[in-house]
Structure prediction request, 609 residues.
Amino acid sequence: MESYTIHDYDVLVIGAGGAGLRAAIAAIEQGAKVGVVTKSLLGKAHTVMAEGGMAAAMGNVRPEDNWKVHFRDTLKGGGMLNNWKMVENYTKEAPDRVRELEQWGAVFDRTPDGRINQRNFGGHSYPRLAHVGDRTGLELIRTLQDHAVKMGIHAHMETTIYRLLTDAGRVVGALGFNRQTGEFLVFRAKAVVLATGGLGRIYQITSNSWECTGDGFSLASMVGADLIDMEFIQFHPTGMVWPPSVMGILVTEGVRGEGGVLKNSEGKRFMFDNVPERYKGEFAETEEEAERWLQGDRSARRPPELLTRDVVARAIRKEVNEGRGSPHGGAYLDIASRRPADYIKKKLPSMYHQFMKLGNLDITKEPMEVGPTCHYVMGGVRVDPDTQATNVPGLYAAGEVAGGLHGANRLGGNSLSDLVVFGRRAGMAAAEFAAKQTAPYQVDEAQVRAYIAEALEPFNNPHGENPFALMKELRATMQKNAGIMREESELKAQLEILANLRKRAWNTSVSGSRAYNPGWHTALDMRLMVEISEAVVLAALARKESRGGHARLDYPDPDPSFARINHIIRRSSDGTLTVVAEPLPEMPDELRKVAEAKDLKELSEKVGA
Ligand code: FAD
Prediction:
């Protein structure tokens, strides 16, 4: 019989990115004993990759900015499919969460008069992103980690959670294993916060780190939690497409915020021709006006390069499809000819060093070749907008794994502040729930033993499939059939591929010992990745329109009949996933006026924002 070690916590947080660490701090503040589990090391979560900054309407650069403008921008970017209550909570609280980070030691860039500096980003009406050069995520994690460690978190590093444990319909802990040793660990907990990040790794080209295999979505769904909006995946417009050593790596929107422009192979700045109807009048119509805006002229309008990500990604794809792309299927992003080398090195130091080191490319001298890369998932585990509770008692979710805030598309910079606003709320609510659980709860040993046996199957299956080959097939087919542009025939074909991959994922073979065995890790990852890929494809098939991050070749326009519908993915007891269309919660009139204000002038005149 396999042995395992037991750890007891009031609150178990799965994930040590921004959301997980902020949740852990909040739960400890409520007096809970907190354990944090991470697949990698503390300080290494995917959040460290975040570059551009965190959005919060602090009004440090433009005093006209406030939560109502941020509220409107976020809903507009999200195609109005966002959960309005989450957006309200988020936009009101984000400035406090940024200031709190500063009190805990985060060293933000400064305005000349010494306040936290804020930069421009796509879809934001005003400069709104608090930032630390282009290393904002790193500073966020450093600050939260220092604080959490001081407060006394118990960290389990290089530990993967394989399954959540339940008792009578309630989550009571999780089963995991230490990646280094292969030892199994049982975490008994009165409440669990999922903060496992995104799912970019189900696609072949992605900016996401190796940890982002979408585990949390599947873990939650497998115990009966609803998922929401899974069709909405953001393909960031500016991932490197060349040279191969940097393929998929993100070029932060900060490059465009600092004056970088997109050009096609004919040298034309094509974004002026790609402003959608709903944004007409809000963006500069000449190069000269765009530059004036970048230099702080308040009478000018924003450069069209700062349109939302879906719009920019599709504009690049259009140039490529019409034969004006760069040699490797992208477009040129040029900051070299727009700003002096010293300025670029000062404002975008990581971009400069990273591409110099990894690709031998000097962005102060040459343009970058960029194209869409899978970047972020708007959908996720469905949560209560105030507490982040899922529909399964004892289970909470925060950060990228949770859905609802971003609707059909996320604005850049709206994730880092999401992590701290909702990480805190999740941690507080989970600790409160845990404190109320006075009756003894059970971890069912038979359940634990069954999951351990299941996890070890690949070692006892000499004729099974190679998990690496399966993973490659999954990622390539998701990229081709459920990527940036979708259509019914390909999505249906992908469902069949996934049904086949699902069977094969439960019939893999691995050799060697359990101590740091990447084949075994891949075999177990595959089981969860197939689950979540199916949810994405089902939701994408159901939405017969194009909106935000979901673009259908066979339904290229938004369809009003889908305008107020969220897709919920629900799992039945036999494991079948179904899509349920649910109307959006009604927005109160006062907020509707804010959300639907025609422009900033109307917003200011009619609702005093
Ligand atoms: P993550 O930081 O992804 O952390 C997830 C944690 O869960 C990790 O510790 C991981 O090990 C753990 N985990 C996962 N599965 C398991 C499991 N089965 N068992 C145990 N542990 C598990 N957003 C912005 O707002 N501004 C930006 O400037 C910005 N820049 C970005 C730049 C890049 C290159 C990328 C890729 C993203 C960027 N984003 C940005 C998005 C943002 O970084 C992410 O959405 C955010 O960091 C996600 O944080 P998280 O806490 O939800 O999860």
Residues 28 and 34 are 6 Å apart (CA to CA). The longest strand covers residues 4-14. The mean pLDDT is 94.
